[in-house]
Design a protein that fits this description.
28% of the residues lie in helices and 34% in strands. It is an alpha+beta fold. The chain is globular, with a radius of gyration of 15 Å. The protein is built from 5 helices and 8 strands, in the order E-H-E-E-E-H-E-E-H-E-E-H-H. It starts with a strand and ends with a helix. Strand 3 and strand 4 form a beta hairpin. Strands 1, 2, 3, 4, 5, 6, 7 and 8 form an 8-stranded mixed beta sheet that branches.
């Protein structure tokens, strides 16, 4: 799901992204082996688009995080440069992205290491700060 935000990506606040992530929360049991909607995420791209997604949890760990779902919607729409991102738990608590999500988003666009990530209420870090000792620095001979 996505929607066009008015103005530049800089004009969309984390409060707005928080509201968008909370709006997609809908915890529910999909089957005896899967649940979804306990975490919602919102990604803001450099073009001002907001993409949202929810997690899908399965009994055998084949599910994925809300950030992955939002990123998939973003890539499907032809975008891949993230300006800001946030994830919210079913009770409204802001969650930092897991290591898998950090790495996944960082690989979609070279500029995503500068993505602003709200990791807790009032705490924003870049994706690069959340990925110290980046393996790519060795892999590409930097």
């Amino acid at each position: 799901m996505n929607s066009k935000s008015e103005g530049s990506s800089a004009s969309v606040t984390f409060d707005e992204l928080y509201s968008r992530a909370r709006a997609v929360l809908n915890p529910r049991k999909l089957s005896a082996f899967a649940e979804s909607g306990g975490v919602g995420a919102a990604l803001l791209t450099h073009t001002g688009q907001v993409y949202v997604g929810v997690c899908i949890d399965t009994a055998c760990s084949m599910g994925f995080c809300a950030e992955h779902a939002a990123a998939a919607a973003m890539v499907t729409a032809g975008e891949h440069h993230v300006h800001k991102m946030i994830a919210v738990n079913w009770d409204g608590k802001i969650l930092p992205p897991c290591g898998r999500c950090r790495e996944f988003i960082s690989q979609l666009h070279e500029g995503n290491l500068e993505t602003e990530v709200m990791v807790a209420e009032g705490a924003v870090l870049t994706l690069k700060a959340l990925l110290p000792f980046d393996w790519r620095e060795t892999a590409v001979g930097k």
